[in-house]
Amino acid sequence: MVNWQRLNMVKKIALVLALFVYFLTPSYGKDILEDIPLAAHLKERYTDDLPELIKRRHIRVLTTFNRTNFFIANSRTYGFEYSLLKDYEKFLNRGIKRRELKITLEFIPVSRDRLIPLLLEGYGDIAAAGLTITSERLKKVDFTDPYLTNVREVVVVHRSVKGIKKAEDLSGKTVYVRRTSSYYESLKLLNSKLTLKGLKPVRVEPADESLETEDILEMVNSGAIKITIADSHIARIWSRVFKNIRVLDGAAVREGGKIAWMVRKDNPLLKKSLNRFIKSHRKGTRIGNIYFNRYFKNTRWIKNPLDKDIARKPYIRLFKKYGKKYGFDWLFLMAVAYQESGLNNKKRSPSGAVGIMQVRPATARDKNIGIRNIYRLENNIHAGTKYLAFLRDRYFSDPELKERDRLRFTLAAYNAGPLKIKKARRVAKKMGLNPNRWFRNVEIAVLKTIGQETVQYVSNINKYYILYKLHFQNVEKRKALKKQAVR
Questions:
Q1: How many structural domains comprise the chain?
Q2: In angstroms, how far apart are the furthest CA atoms of the chain?
Q3: Does 477 fall in a domain?
């Protein structure tokens, strides 16, 4: 139900696997995300270098949700880090043949305090979240060459705060930063200098690790807290939105900072590959400057906050209604609709499919569906959802199928037709592959018997679904934390 023109557009936007696991614990990998079956393959643990990662056909990027580096707007994925690493994905796929599986970067947003532990434990391969190279971090991980240099960490205050002109003026004052941030290390060094001078140290108040710098700046803007530290490029862009904050350029706690990607110390080939890529994409290059200016000088994105983008859409109620009726997570249905139409009910395809779910009139008229007037938004969502349920229950009810693979086979059938997917499962078995598993098994048979479109279709929806589901969890937690701070 997707034509190549639509697929090419989708490829440009987001082949992103976003898992906001702010609630991660050291047991991650055993029991996390059990209620999201399409995320189950991410629970594997390994510390391979680049050659083995290429064999696996995916590289896991640990990152964080924020409105400059990695975020959703208009139901799509954007951001400075995201743009750079999507280009790295293209860099890795140079020379890949049409019928070969492409290497995919899978983005896994986590809370800040879990970036290094998850990288070291083998649940990610790269950590990319605007990370400053520091002596403490270098004790545990390695860094690529920097893609941002000469970064200054500056004091940011509520407009009511007076009397701070230089870093030493923070003596005796309370400053809110995350304990795992480079800002925290910078304040520790400042406190050592203040102590030698006989001055009171800065009182460092640890902020919740689920909060991004922008969230803390928002709290300063509200007056809930008075002082924080931020990278100057982050502070500057947000000062154009938050009118109650002042960026004190003369009060820097770190000068000449370098921001780079983290890798494990025993992954030199991955680091070498990333460094080759960074040479043409660091700030100062043409493409690096384009991305930096897009996200750190243009306020277009930060005027549309992440948590206000999706929830207000009119189709949400309908996805919830028919998801409940037919046994689907409503966010799964939204991911299907985004892949099919970009959430546009006016979409018409050359093959005759219409509406937000791209349902063919003949399909809607079938006795197993029986929904009329699919040009109406509600009827289109009803017909698409009922057809998904029909495919799932009629063709993929095998008891040996796990729920995650049942959903993936259903998606493939929605795209290519159920009989083609049944045939692909038989072909997979003849190839010595598992006919009950999609990834790296039946998808290979589909690639050979049907083509790239269906493989990419399932991959896209798999990623969009997890992104949407955990995006909403992210929004709710950050809202709660900010409300708590205001009290």
A1: 3
A2: 84
A3: no
